[in-house]
Amino acid sequence: MRFYKAILVGLLIVCAIHAGVFAQTTSCEEQLSAAAAEFEAGRFYGIPSMLKPCIDNGFTREQRQRAFLLLTQAYLLLDDPIGADNSYLEVLRANPEFLADTARDQIDVVYLSKRFTAAPIFSISGRLGGNFSPISVISTINSSGEQGVDNKYRLRFGWQAAVGVDWHLSERIAVTAELNYAFTSYKKDQVKFNKDLEQFIDKQNWLSVPLGVKYSFFVREKIRPYVFGGYAFNFLFSDKGQIQISKRDQGEGSLDESSPDLSFNAYRTKLNTSLFLGLGAKYKVGIDFLFAEMRYNAGLTNMVKPTSTYGSSSPAVEYGHVDDYFRINNFSISVGYVKPLYKPRKVKRVKTKSVLKGIKQQEK
Amino acid sequence: MMKVRRLYVWLFVTTLVTCASCETDGPDDYKNYFIKYYGGDGNQEAKDFVVNDDGTIIMLGTSFETFENQEFTRLYLVKTDAEGNQLWAKKLGTTLEQAQDVELITAGPDAGKLVILSNVKKNSSDSIAIRLMVVSQDGDSIKSKLFNQLESQRARSITSLADGGYYVVGNTTDTDAALNTDLPLGVVDVDDELVIKFESDWNNNSFYQIGRSSIASGMKIFQVGGEFYYAGYWDAIELPGGINESNFFFRKFTNDPSSVSTLYVGNKSENEFLTSIVKSFAGGYLAVGTKVATSKSIVAAKINSSFSAAGSMQNVLQDAESINVASSGSGGYWIVGNQIGVGNVRDIVLISIDADGNVNSSRAIVKFGATNNDDVASSVYELPTGDVLILGTMELVNQRKMALIKVKSNGSF
Questions:
Q1: CB contact under 8 A, A193 and B24
Q2: What sections of A95-229 are H helices per DSSP?
Q3: Which tens digits make up the pLDDT trace of B140-170?
Q4: C-alpha distance from A306 to closest chain B C-alpha (Å)
Q5: Would you call A139 and B26 a contact, using CB atoms and an 8 Å cutoff?
Q6: What is the mean pLDDT of residues B92-105?
Q7: Which residue, A212, A283, B105, B331, has most beta carbons within 10 Å?
Q8: How many other C-beta atoms are found inside a 10 Å radius of the C-beta of residue A179?
Q9: Which domains does chain A have, with CATH numbers?
Q10: How far apart are alpha carbons B413 and B313 in whole angstroms?
Q11: Which CATH architecture has domain B93-266?
């Protein structure tokens, strides 16, 4: 009984809060309409005080944008440039991607808007996804002396997570840097000694720093495709392999034996580099973005040390396993979140040519 | 705009650097790391190899195969190029055959071909016969001959002679009591030395059984002009104050190896078994073997060029067994053996010996083998380049395969 009472009380509290918020929102909307009516009536002086309570505590982001735009217009008409500037900066804080439009806004607001931008200088992002790693063989190395040893590399799935930062050089172009953790894997099947099958599963853990350039399209749309490319430094901090040998003799069954996980760190190049290309799309959510992208990393470095897996006591000696010289590539698909660090500010060089163009187009 | 222009320049430079740094061609280093395995169904155990003047290598081993719970053993012959790439692999002989030795025929109608020595298990019992087989450089059997004149005989090595004939040495358990009258009371006569001379006509042969010991075996004969130098081990009491224990022996003969004076090397109270002997480029010989006491160790002794004087027996490596020895262009020698580890698991060892017959302290002993696998050496040879080829048998988890290893003269890959 006490339990049900508690639920009921909780529901009442939630309803009360919701009603309060709704009432406040409604009243602030009414207040905003009243202020707009005052503006239409030419009574500008009272508008700031009318809007202040809701500016301080109550407007939604969208209402805040409309309120400060109204104030910007009022201050322009009151010949208060400082007030207009400050109000327009608040418009941009409410909606960093706000653009004054000659068709919708007063021409002096449009001109004023050209003196400001909220374009982010940096964006931060995080992403998560899956990958697989095709292998490019540089030199085939067989421990078996027989000719025509059949080697086949097979794909295995891995995953990756990254955090990154974009440095926006312009609205469309950004220089990007990331810190990327990736788990990658591949499998090599080798048939030797007549029909024996050696299956080698190699698993890598990487820390990568991809540095690149990103170019975005449709920068005002809800969905913004982009392409990117660059150069990555990939530090291999762990490599483990497992070898399974299936001895398959004529007239006999298969005799299978597996190794435990063996460290291949000693046989790998630690610092690898790659070239990457990719494409993706950002979807605007509020003032941030969700994104999905795919990228292809073309490995540039021979991942195997010149010794391969040879040594006096090594996988070559214990299991007969020898690695080819190869480069590891990677195809990944990720989804993530971008938070642009908007910075409303005055621009150094004001360009107003586009305003006139807009007016002319409108006249036509 | 400046920033974007700088970016384009950066992109251009990066692309150039990237293209230049892409490794599309591998280094050839892997060719230096030379361990190659050979075999097919079943297990293959290496025995001996021959390096031709053109650099090609012919390896002899035994293939062990099981079919319907019955094990068959056949000769396994592999030819590779100088880089170890297999040119062909063939199985030869009967299904009860074990490889022992392969030699390049140096004279006679079959010069340039190979003679293979094998021990053939007789069907009736544990007895063994000896087979000689002449094969072409393509591995085709040309002719073979079975020596089965005793109840059981085991061959150790074959020597191709200047007249086109062959000497085969080994031992026989078909002991001749008349030869062993001076054995101390209670000592069992286990085997006699056996020296077989095959004439160049391939059909005629003669053999010598040499007794006066409990255990004995001929290991190798060298032809030096009109003489033959013969080495082996036996446990006859020849050393003053000695007991019935095995030593290396060295003899010189012209026709009959049984009635000549004998040179002995060995400790009076320990068993030393000769495993291999080689003639150095300087003219002397190095004999290597295994000393068996509470543990095994590799021992070596230098013999002079006329087979008339021997140096003292040198301890080479403790907890190890000797397998084979090769001469080095440096005037020294290479010994291959097996280091015996925990649980009697063995690893292949390569030991450099200087011209005086001592272990070369400036070169580390090189070891090959996995901790839990039984890996054993079979033969060793120094190439004209100074690189060293080692033939062995490596255990690869669930099978045994013939392994050819090439290292530089400093023992590294």
A1: no
A2: 107-113
A3: 999 999 999 998 999 999 999 999 999 999 9
A4: 6
A5: yes
A6: 94
A7: A212
A8: 13
A9: 2-119 (1.25.40), 122-341 (2.40.160.20)
A10: 31
A11: 6 Propeller (2.120)
